[in-house]
Design goal:
The chain is of the alpha+beta class and 569 residues long. It folds into five domains: 118 residues, no CATH class; 39 residues, no CATH class; 95 residues, no CATH class; 88 residues, no CATH class; 80 residues, no CATH class. The protein is 49% helix and 7% strand. It is built from 26 helices and six strands. Strands 1, 2, 3 and 4 form a four-stranded antiparallel sheet that branches. The protein has a two-stranded antiparallel ribbon with strand order 5-6. Helix 15 crosses helix 17. The two termini are 59 Å apart.
Amino acid sequence: MMTPEQTRLLNKLQLMRHPAFANITPLTMSPEEASDFFRQNLPILEYQTAVAIKPNREMEEKIFWGMNEYDCKKQIDRWIDDNGYTLDHRPNPYFGGGEDWLKYFAQPISQVNLRSLEKHFDEWEIRIPKETREIPDGDKVRKETFSLLELGFDDADPAKLELAVEKRKAREYAELHRITPEQRVEIKSLQAAGKAPAIDRSEYLKMDRHAAEEYLAKYRDNPENTFEAVSYEKKTAPAKTEAFPEYRPSNLIGKKPADYLQRSILRDLAEEGHIATPETKREFLDKIQFITREQAEKLIETREDLPAGAGLIEQCRAYCEFGQIYNSRDVNTIADVRNLYQANRSYDFDKKAALRDLVEEGYISSPDSLAKIEFLTGKQEDLLLNRFGDALAGPRIRAKLMELVSDGSIGTLDDEQFQNLSVKDAMYVISQSSAISRTHNCKPASVKQKELLQKMEQRGQIDLSKIDLEHLSSKEAHDLIDANIRNQFGNLNGPATEKQRQMIRTLVRAGAASTMSASVWKNLTKQQASAIISAVPEEKRKEIMAECAERTAQAVSRPLATCPKPHAD
């Protein structure tokens, strides 16, 4: 069971409609599990502990939480200016995250740059939706759109909180009483047989499962042709004018087309009348193949809260059953569909390469076979590879084997063995090789994770010289970041690391840091080294380190010269 503080943070995140916390309950998760879950699904924060001198010469200490070092610095400067204080010294920056967001949300919302906060969540690939409320303004009604991130702050607008709670209750009620796909099918079949009368479309869309059951019970036993039959045949008449002129083959020049999942969602939105009208639907469906990924993302982004149609639900049901993931009843909205595919897709690119070979050589044939491979789960990939494992290995897998041979990761293969190699045998060799660069079923590290690791390295807190950032998985990046945050206070009085000493040498040589006596240099601690490095502005520090790297590169052909150690004044 979560602690009261963890439960409070969970409530804030659920009000904000953070997708990862939608179905989490505080009773089913231990404090340790909750702490890990918060760290994994919330962006990293930074904080600084500032010490200021008051006009009466007393000291005051305060902790400032921000999205980055610059954000903390702005808050400290505002605090100093507003109170007439003098900053004792520029504080060191540290990293935080997870439950630390309670401390961030405790600050007044008026002091926060909400646009920067939204951007911070976007950079960590966390989508927090916006909400619109109507405000009476004289005889008119004014609409205001705001980010649900505002609801996380302790002093959030009560009217916005009340609106969010009402909307959540309405969604829960609508979800609980939503008309089922089976009821929709039966209503249409009764109307097509003339057993039941037609229903106005607006009324039909408002119908919940109770109203649907009343309608079905009333007309189910009627004889056929009691009412005029309603035809649901698709109209094939072409549109007289182009309703979607922006979707043309030329769009795809230099750009990727919409992926399989995006196309599936767009088809469903069109079939349900959310994008195209009945008259323009056929044109839209015909032009889906010309829509780019960027265009598809914009179309879907504003419609994620809409209910998924029967066709898309059926597709998800097949996906769930084939991959044995979880009950398809958990999938209701477009956002649920995206989460289902994104959360369960595999990132084992070697298996996907083998499957693409099988498709192109005709072993696997189904509509959109190549496009579907991107979103297959690990279990689905294994089932297909086992089914077609006796087929000859294709060009992609053979190229992978040649790469492993050239790298020395595996021994050479004789020509006959290589020519007769099956998919199953080739995948076994690859899976046993220690040269596999990606963790199975782990998404690659995000740009923001890589930037944060590089920032930690610039501060001398971590050594990335042996880390392959290009092939780093998201989980590996998270573990590195989490370990560094946990250990940033560990043994601060221990000797400075070689990485810190190298940076200080470079800064001293550039005149950005002061020289020190030999005894101070010999006994330099991690905390002292961190303070020296952090005292140099980040931009200047980057510039100095870049210049040093450039000089080193230019001196490769000459005897190596190291940066001098700081000497006594």
